[in-house]
Specification:
By secondary structure, the protein is of the alpha/beta class. It contains 27 helices and 24 strands.
Length: about 700
């Protein structure tokens, strides 16, 4: 009887592609195989044996019909490189699979020569629209010598195939089956990156620090450039959701930010698709694993649906015990929870009621110089946001982008009205969010300090938080190593006003990293999105200007389409027709339609239902499943992504919103702020798309849309 022996099975990205193509029954059998193999690789039913290939390949049985093809990388440590049907498991293995250690990165890579050969034989029809003609002699990469490509880490065994790539379609098909690093290098060169830029942005972060032993497979598997995982949770997610689940795993450039120890608050910034959320998730997981038993972490963001998405993804990275140490909540939920604990809650006021209360106060005191809208904004955006509690503090307060200057007498008048309004709230046992955020932050700042509520705080989509939010966050964790970690992009700010973190007690100087490579959006879509953002005037959360300079994509695809319509009925018909075409070949859940208003959401859903297309509205707290097209306002799409997108209802009469246009003459400063938010909103919508995006409108297009992309 064979000796019982535990084993480690690492899943290589080539094998993940194979598993992704199999039906769920076979995936379930693989999960069972993995468990049995790791518990005892020598049990007879697995039939583990070395193959006579000369390349160190082994096989094991996955049920009656499939076999695992592996390479042995260490004692009782195997890397799965393919899953094959039983009849073909041993056919031509000498020719097909070649495990190799990359001489530049030191990582384990698997060459799947059959798939590579098929990729360069013909262009992929999906990408035919963007195919470039074959170059006169050597194909797309003729301008580069073998030595230059190899120095960047391109897989040496694939050089003959690379020289045969002559169209964008062939490149796309090749990159889908080539080792990850080789694909990244080739995509970047094709996108116009220079050799020097590819070396700096793509190769340097994964380059081995010393000599590479090409025979040491176990060390190679452990290098960060290897696309492998031994995580049961990662494999389970991949088996359930397909290879896309691996998008949660970080690129080496991101991993360096994740693993760094910061002596204080730190920030990662970057455009959409650069992996800020991936960094935030892995940063949270890393910190959670190092907590003392009585410590906790807060992972927070601005909206409910983003918090729910973060919680689901974090569950892929941590076990149940580790997860119990992490609170994943949107920040206003934290505010509400703390207020409830202290008994400060009464009757909530919505935005309309809040404005009405200010209107009533103005009538009661005969205020005519300062209208209710101005006073509401002053109280919300200056007094509450800055946690102001006295006349003297208000006289010294900064009033960034407020609509009018106030002299000392006017400030005194405003403060008198603020005190009256606060008294009215107290007498009515009422509250609203701006006031509740301020009161909770103040209470937390003055709380008798025992242990802090959190040891670490990680913030995603940080650009949308208010000054009161930041004051609260600063009070929730001690000023210490790795206290606050902030991920955000001010070009995506669609709520609130700009803040300067340094003035709020959050000093990030010298601890900022900017990500520039987009891993989600094609360069064709990105070009259109950057044209929208070209006039934006974004801050960097610390008093300086932010920039999207150097923000680029290595992905390629179809150009965005712009389809004007004569009226709303024609636009709805166009939307339904395009969605119908997409759903004929793709899962409904990979498609989204976004529009400016909830009223138009309802019209789009009705139009899709009229064509027999399953469609559901994106709600605040939940996202529809894969069996329906997702339809939502642009605000609802924050943090989500889709393969195919329609951005509709963006005619000049509909977007920006009517209230923004009214501000152009009455309140120029406020107009510029709201126009910037509208521009950011359209930029965010455009960058949710991965493969294709179509813009539609009726009448004249919005002034914020540019056609240069």
């Amino acid at each position: 009887m064979a000796e019982r022996q535990n084993a480690m099975l690492t899943i290589q990205s080539n094998a993940a592609r194979h598993l992704d193509k199999l039906d769920h029954k076979v995936r379930d059998r693989f999960a069972d195989f993995q468990s049995k193999f790791c518990a005892n690789m020598n049990q007879p039913g697995l039939r583990l044996k070395q193959l006579k290939t000369g390349r160190g390949l082994w096989s094991a049985r996955i049920g009656d019909d499939y076999r695992a093809v592996m390479c042995k990388v260490g004692h009782a440590h195997f890397a799965l490189i393919a899953v094959e049907a039983r009849g073909s498991a041993y056919d031509r293995l000498d020719d097909r699979y070649e495990p190799v250690v990359n001489k530049v990165t030191g990582a384990l890579e698997v060459m799947d020569h059959d798939d590579v050969r098929d990729a360069v034989t013909a262009a992929s029809p999906v990408h035919a629209v963007s195919a470039k003609p074959k170059a006169a002699s050597g194909g797309l990469f003729e301008p580069y010598t073998d030595a230059e490509l190899l120095a960047l880490g391109v897989a040496e065994p694939l050089m003959p195939s690379i020289r045969r790539i002559g169209t964008e379609g062939q490149l796309a098909a090749f990159c889908a089956v080539a080792p990850h690093h080789t694909a990244e290098v080739l995509r970047a060169l094709d996108a116009g990156f220079t050799i020097e830029e590819v070396e700096e942005l793509i190769t340097a972060p994964v380059k081995a620090s010393g000599p590479v032993d090409t025979s040491d497979l176990e060390t190679a598997v452990g290098r960060e450039a290897s696309m492998v995982t031994s995580s049961d949770r990662a494999v389970a997610a991949m088996l359930e959701s397909g290879f896309e689940a691996w998008r949660v795993w970080p690129h080496p450039t991101q991993k360096r930010v994740i693993d760094r120890v910061y002596k204080g608050p730190a920030r990662v910034s970057g455009g959409p698709g650069t992996g800020k959320t991936v960094v935030a998730l892995h940063r949270t997981a890393r910190l959670a694993r190092r907590l003392d038993s009585d410590e906790r972490i807060l992972l927070t963001t601005y909206t409910k649906n983003l918090a729910a998405d973060l919680k689901a993804k974090l569950a892929l990275l941590l076990d149940e015990e580790e997860l119990r140490r992490v609170d994943v909540e949107h920040l206003d939920s934290v505010v509400y929870r703390l207020a409830s604990e202290s008994g400060r809650l009464g009757r909530p006021l919505d935005e309309r009621e809040l404005w009405q209360w200010w209107e009533e106060l103005c009538r009661e005191v005969g205020e005519s110089e300062l209208d209710a809208e101005f006073l509401r904004g002053e109280w919300t955006e200056v007094v509450c946001a800055q946690l102001i509690t006295s006349r003297s503090e208000y006289f010294q307060a900064r009033r960034v982008r407020r609509p009018r200057r106030l002299n000392r007498l006017q400030r005194a008048r405003v403060w008198d009205l603020v005190e009256r309004f606060n008294q009215r709230l107290a007498e009515g046992d009422a509250w609203c969010w701006p006031q509740l955020r301020a009161s909770v932050a103040l209470a937390e700042e003055h709380r008798v300090k025992g242990p802090y509520r959190y040891r670490h705080i990680v913030v995603d989509e940080a650009q949308d938080l208010t000054a009161a939010h930041w004051k609260l966050l600063r009070a929730l964790a001690p000023e210490d190593t790795d206290d606050l970690f902030i991920a955000g992009d001010t070009f995506q700010r669609i709520y609130g006003q700009p803040v300067t973190l340094g003035k709020l007690g959050v000093d990030i100087r010298g601890r900022s990293k900017r990500l520039t490579l987009n891993y989600r959006t094609t360069r064709e879509i990105l070009k259109t999105a950057l044209a929208i953002a070209a006039d934006a005037n974004a801050d960097d959360l610390d008093g300086d200007r932010d920039s999207l300079a150097g923000y680029r994509s290595v992905m390629s695809g179809a150009r965005p389409q712009f389809r004007p319509q004569t009226d709303l009925a024609a636009e709805l018909a166009e939307i339904a027709g395009q969605v119908q075409a997409w759903t004929a070949e793709h899962a409904p859940g990979s498609i989204a339609v976004t529009v400016p208003t909830k009223a138009m959401v309802e019209k789009v859903v009705a139009a899709l239902h009229g064509k027999g297309i399953s469609a559901r509205e994106l709600a605040r707290e939940r996202t529809p499943g894969e069996d329906a097209v997702h339809v939502g306002t642009m605000h609802r799409l924050k943090g989500l992504e889709y393969r195919f997108m329609l951005i509709s209802g963006i005619g000049a009469d509909q977007f920006p919103f009517s209230y923004v246009k009214k501000l152009e003459e009455s309140d120029p400063q406020r107009y510029e702020l709201e126009l910037e938010k509208a521009r950011n909103l359209l930029f965010v919508a455009a960058t949710r798309a991965r493969d294709e995006v179509v813009f539609t409108w009726s009448g004249a297009p919005t002034r914020l849309l540019h056609f240069g992309g």
